[in-house]
Amino acid sequence: MTSTPIPVAVLGPNGRMGSEACRAVDAAEDLELVARIGRGDDLDAAAQAGAEVVVDLTVPSAAKANVLWALDHGMHAVVGTTGWDEDALAEVREALDRNPRLGVLIAPNFAIGAVLAMRFAEIAARYYESAEIIELHHPAKVDAPSGTARHTAAAIARGRAAGGLGAVPDATETDPLRARGAVVDGVHVHAVRLRGLVAHEEVLFGGVGEQLTLRHDSFDRVSFMPGVLLGIREVASHPGLTLGLDGYLELG
Question: Which residues take part in binding NADP(+) (predicted)?
Fold first, then answer.
């Protein structure tokens, strides 16, 4: 006897990621796409359709309100929209405190390879004096640095702290044009926006006489769909707020 498919609503179904997510959910036998909510559509359509999981693939300015709405209506949320700050995350946590059985996954990247690269970066960070990140995306991306780069920088910072390392060495005294990029958790991050790219990241580690480079490339947004589907299937089993798909994987 087969189980009842999980009813899913996709917010942002007309975007690049949203359209792929709709196709992936449609093709999955254990999931059912019950609502597609585009810009200007009434969110209540998701509730009326009986959605249990809302997938938010919209824009940073809308994502927080969408997640809070989903929680207030008893729905889990899987979020690929980046641009979250601590204040917004605090509001989500407060809403989850009122709805302790619900789960929210906010993932900066749903590609399994990208998640593994972030974990590998944390492991490697303790062994190298220097670390920098180059993230490369299409020019329509609205935020920089990317959520993936921020998540990776945080992982590197954890690894360096665990290894007892101090600040990354950098003798730069003046940088009026910000050539050294942004500094996220003590790690320099350089953002490239170039036509023809999708989502790519290089993590560079340097030690005496050697360099280690970790690189992940998503050439097509279909690469994100296994992670999106994993999030939909697992979110109900992980109440509370989870930041990063690695929270659903057994990566140690």
Answer: 39
